[in-house]
């Protein structure tokens, strides 16, 4: 895994990008983030991989020379990443079936599978995740307290359910990645000096109406934000290179007051209150 020269050369001529819609995805911020990424680092870790925009971007520009570790606590998401990496052609075939059958009744039938205890193999689970992601309201990932997906169908005339080349290019990029379902608190045991860790956790809500989704059955709350800040400090003591994205909020500013904090502006399109959408401030926290 330490010798990736061929993969990197190939990556420079590729256009890998997220294959899932993702609330809070960083695709629009990548050009601004470029100036914050470390010039050199050893291994790369992303404990909240989400849509993977930063990973795919760094792969495109040939930043990786050693192992890559992509983690998340969302079991369905991690399964989907693994299937994209390991069984891409089987996955494309399975998604194409959903594409042909898509309508309102079919959407809710597929959505209800996690309520009916119906067994699906890993490829079928991944195809279901991608299909629901591409056809649900705003590409949200939200589950109830039982971990059941509960987002209504979106109002799309012709949803783009299957982009084969996007999936194949993502699969190529993911060949260099270790992909695990893991809590962010475990990352300290895996990292060493000069490793680069990018954190993109569920954001601290800036208002009561800006948080109406639950990423897993356990919500990411203030206690988790404080635990993440502790991990950030622990990694700093290990001389790791850490970068974190979060909302511009009093709690986040307080938790990371001893570190370099940069302000970026982005456009928020998902909020239950229209007044809470539009151009907003976010923070990028750096320990280097």
Q: Can you tell me about this structure?
A:
The protein is globular. Strands 3-2-1-4-5-7-6 form a seven-stranded mixed β-sheet, sandwiched between helices. It folds into two domains: 181 residues, Rossmann fold; 85 residues, Orthogonal Bundle (Adenine-specific Methyltransferase, domain 2), CATH 1.10.1020.10. It has ten helices and seven strands. The chain is an alpha/beta fold. The longest helix has 16 residues. Helix content is 35%, strand content 15%.
Secondary-structure map with pairings?
Layout: H1 5-12, H2 30-33, E1 44-46, H3 53-60, E2 68-72, H4 75-86, H5 88-101, H6 104-111, H7 122-135, H8 164-174, E3 177-181, E4 196-199, H9 222-237, E5 241-247, H10 250-255, E6 260-268, E7 278-286
Parallel strand pairs: 1-2, 1-4, 2-3, 4-5
Antiparallel strand pairs: 5-7, 6-7
- Can you identify the CATH superfamily of the largest domain? Vaccinia Virus protein VP39
Tell me the number of structural domains. Answer: 2
Portion of residues in helices?
Answer: 25-40%
CATH fold field value of the largest domain: Rossmann fold
The count of helical stretches stands at: 10
Mean pLDDT: 90
- The spatial strand order of the largest sheet comes to 3-2-1-4-5-7-6
What composes the largest sheet? Answer: 7 strands, mixed
Number of E-type strands = 7
How do the helices and strands follow one another from N- to C-terminus? HHEHEHHHHHEEHEHEE
Q: State the end-to-end CA separation.
A: 26 Å
Strand residues, percent: 5-15%
